[in-house]
Every structure is written in structure tokens, then in C-alpha cells.
N-acetyl-alpha-D-glucosaminyl L-malate synthase (Virgibacillus pantothenticus), 375 residues
Amino acid sequence: MKKIGITCYPSVGGSGVIATELGMLLAERGNEVHFITSSLPFRLNHIHPRIFFHEVELSHYPVFQYPPYDLALAAKMAEVINREKLDILHVHYAMPHAISALLARDIADHKVKIVTTLHGTDITVLAIDDIFKNMITHAIHQSDAVTAVSNHLAAHTKQMLNVKQNIHVIYNFVNEQEYYPKPLLSIKEQYGIKPTEKVIAHISNFRKVKRLPDIIRTFDLIHKQTDSKLLLIGDGPECGTAMELVQDLGIEQNVLFLGKQKNVNDLLRISDLKLLLSEKESFGLVLLEAMACGVPCIGTNVGGIPEVIDHEKTGFLVDLAAIEQAASYAIQLLTDRELWKSFSNHAIKRVKDHFHSTHIVEQYEQLYDQLLSTP
Ligand code: GMT
């Protein structure tokens, strides 16, 4: 039994989902897991005798212009390392979590190993700024082990930050108990979608990199040829622009803005196709969630997406901004039942064969064991 601390962003988002699911599986496998986060991780939805939550609290002293969250996190980490005698502190995101973990390791009396998992955003966005670039590089070099969620992210990090040390690639996974195909016609009906209408889904945090206009314009082309509805699931800075575009194209009746949703598995189960046309994406966990529910995906040939979608077998890859190509593939899939069935079956199989939670959690545990066997 190992004692593992986990820090992540506890709100909605792929990295938080992975960190939380990993923690729950590690506990199932007999380990003791301590979440050290600003609030209860949103996917931490059941109690377990070996899962503990340590909240990072911020004191608002009038002398501080900004509350020092990263320092409060480091202090809490050091406290938990010492009191619980943690073996491993696994942080998701180099910035700021690995930095706080390094400080905590220096402060704590008990010896702990730090594992940092890179999810993409800190590398692709923050590393562009030189101040943070040095800090992220420091966090990577000083961690006892670093993992990345795709080969693309590992290679990109090494090249961009001139990192020499090994970055272990450990793919993301889905919770198979929650993501599996299930016919749910009643939900379709509740949303006013006819049984014969095709459902196309997009899930994201509506940031610019997700290119919502490409999703909407692709749907507009699909809709002209196939009776269909677009589900836009999530919220974020580009929501207003997306709503305006939907109005300009006159497709308000066919695009449903559903906002942030917890049970995306049920929404995926009523979907026939998933679109992710991002300009940056280190992995695309939402693709895996869709594939596990038997939903074929169309994604851009960008970042880690080609490591998830098997082109012409589980879905299609298109160049960035190639909306005509995306629409043409979509129409091909949605109008050929045999082809769709084959893609759907292959998608389910691909998730089982390459991204099974047991297999992925084993890889993390092997890495922990390797670290703990070295002084
Ligand atoms: O995509 C985002 O903006 C959210 C971000 C996150 O922190 O959850 O997603 C990143 O991590 C996910 C889990 O590993 C990956 O599936 C996403 O591809 C990655 N996002 C980017 O690289 C833009």
C-alpha cells in the first residue's frame, strides 16, 4: 500500500477528471489517496475509506494585494506530506502545482517523490511567456518523474523547453463504469429531437483554441444535407460569439446550447457524431469519452488527437479549418448505417485495447514503484 497525494484543478476539465478518476482507482487498488486541492474535485462522487480530502484554505490578510494561493498550497502539501507520511505527491500541471510541490518537498521533513503530469495547457500556453518558461522547465527538471498524456505533448515539451530528461507517456483513460453505450431515446425526446434526427455533439470549455465557429459552420453544412441537431455542451469565453454566429446562419432551431453538464455520458449516448476541431489539443479526453459510448469522432490533425482517433476506422482526421472536408466525412458517416456501425464498434474496441483504465493505472503504479525503489 502506497500513500499518494494528488493535486489538480478540481473544477470541470479533462485534467481534473483524470486526476480524480486516477485517485479513485488507486484507492480501489488498496492505496491511500489524499487529494490536496482548493475544493472537492467535482468527479469525487462517492465515499471511500482510503480517500481523504485536504482543502487548501486562503486567508485574506489585508497586507496581501492578492491571496497567495500557490504558497498556501505548498504549505498544505508540506503539512500533509509530514502528517500522513506520503510516499508520492502526484501533481497535475507543472504550473503552478509542481512549483508548489517542489517547495513543499523542501519544507517537509518526510521524504516524498514528486510526479508531475503535463496535460498541455501549461506547456502550450504558459511556456510561451519567458518568465514562466524558465519556471516550468525548473519544475520539470526537479520533479522525480514527469509524464505527458500523449507522445505529441512529450515531444513538444522536450523541444520547446529543451528538456533532456525522460518524459513518460501515459495516455488518458475513461471510467468504463460510466462511459459505455446505452440506448436513451427518451432523453432525445426530452430535448425535442426527433428519433430520426442525427445528433452531433461538441464538448469543451469554449476557449478560442476550440474553434467553435468551425464547429458551427461544419454543422451548418451537415444540416443542409442531413436532418440533424447540434449539441454544444460547456461554457466559456467564446459562448457569445458562437451564439451570434448561430443567429447569423439562421440555425437557432437546430443548435442547442446546453451549458456545463455533469452527465455528459448520457448526452454522448444520444449522439451520432462528436466534433473536436481544436487548433491545440494535447489529447482530447472528450473524444475518448465519446468513443467509449460508441460515438465516432471527427477531429483535427493536431496535437495528440491523431493518437486517439484512428483515421477511417474510428472516425476521421481533418486539417485545421477544413470545414468542408469535416462536413463531407460527417455526411458520409451519418448516411451510411453500415459504415457508422463499423466505426462505432471499432471506437469501443480502441478504447478497450489502448486506453483501458486498468492498464493506464497500472502504468502510473509501476512508475511510483520504480521511484520508490530508488533512493
Ligand atoms: O482543454 C482545455 O482547455 C482543458 C485542459 C484541462 O486542463 O483539462 O485540457 C487539457 O488536458 C486534458 C486532459 O489531459 C486533455 O484531454 C486536453 O487535450 C488538454 N487541452 C489542451 O491541450 C488544449
